[in-house]
Amino acid sequence: MLILVPPSEGKTAPPTGAPLTLDALSHPELGPVRSTVLAALEDLSRGDEERALAELHLGPRSREDLQANRVLRTAPAAPAAEVYTGVLFDRLGLGSLPAAARRRAEEHVLIVSALWGVLRPSDRIPAYRCPAGARLPGQDSARRTWAEPLARALPADQLVVDLRSGPYRELWRGPADAPTVLVGVVRESGGRRTVVSHDAKATRGAIGRALLRDRGIWSGNESPKRVARRIEAAGFTVELEPAGRPGTFELTVVERVD
Fold it and tell me: For position 25, what pLDDT does the model report?
């Protein structure tokens, strides 16, 4: 089973450490694409600032992110689990997991990125800015750039629990020969439901943490129904139903508000 998470838009820049080594990242077969995307991001960030801010979805007060992009090859790097910050990673809490759960995270958690393709939590990266919707000079969209390389690099026969949001789900749609469980969150009040967007990141992070701590789910016999039962056993109210795409299931977490 794989647990897919998105990168955080916010990053914690490592204060010290050796710089990025592209060849040392997991899934080295993605190296040529990573190198091309990295060079395009550097070119954009070193060019016209107003254009770069717009393409990277940055406000005028975020010029320091452009500076980070300009020194990606020389800036200090640290494990991705430490560089990525934000609600989902706070609740996932990779650094505070018990030892066995940390080992599971390293083997089964993949961070899907518009710059790196996929990372494992221990992959060492610098802070950067490259959202999934960014258009880089001379490059296709992130979806077109990564769809085929990720399909070749990632296993086609492992069940996926997908904790990503929409844009990052497009970079790799999941395995061809195993189910994908898409996790969504709704809030129910007075019999009416509304889709949760930003706060859903916290819930998805908590679900990822619960699965990593649950020794019983990692038997090699995972199924969408079994995943749903284990998430329910962790204290969540869930509903599971087939999604529109064959082999894909929607797992909806229902947060009831009195």
Answer: 98
